[in-house]
Amino acid sequence: MKIKAIEVSSKKPLSNMKIQLQVKGKESGYLSITTDQRGEFYLDDKYKGQQIAAMTGGSTGSWMTASDGGTLAASSTATSTTKSKETTQKETWK
């Protein structure tokens, strides 16, 4: 089934984003999905009728029933990004 992910405040599609979903129901658990350029993603039909929500910084967003053509409102901070900290090392010359 195809579901569209939109940013909760701007209502714009979350294009090419990696989002972590929480599933509540028979197939409970967590999924990591990536949206396409239109902000859409596909879920297996085994999740149909179950509750899904995007995870934001450890907290769960609004729940929706997974259905074909549904819209999931998610915060743009729901995306998983990894920032690397660059450390500078001082060299001592003798």
Give the CA-CA distance, first to last residue: 66 Å
Number of strands: 8
| Shape, principal axes of CA atoms | globular
Largest sheet: 5 strands, antiparallel
From the alpha-carbon coordinates, what is the Rg to the nearest angstrom? 17 Å
- Residues in helix, %: under 10%
User: Could you state the order of secondary-structure elements as H and E?
Assistant: EEEEEEEE
Derived from helix and strand composition plus strand pairing, the structural class reads mainly beta
Strand content: 35-45%
Number of helices: 0
Question: Averaging pLDDT over every residue, what do you get?
Answer: 83
Low-confidence stretches: 78-89
Description:
This protein is mainly beta. Helices cover 0% and strands 38% of the residues. The chain contains no helices and 8 strands. Strands 2, 3, 5, 6 and 7 form a 5-stranded antiparallel β-sheet that branches. It starts with a strand and ends in a 20-residue tail after the last strand. Residues 78-89 have low confidence and may be disordered.
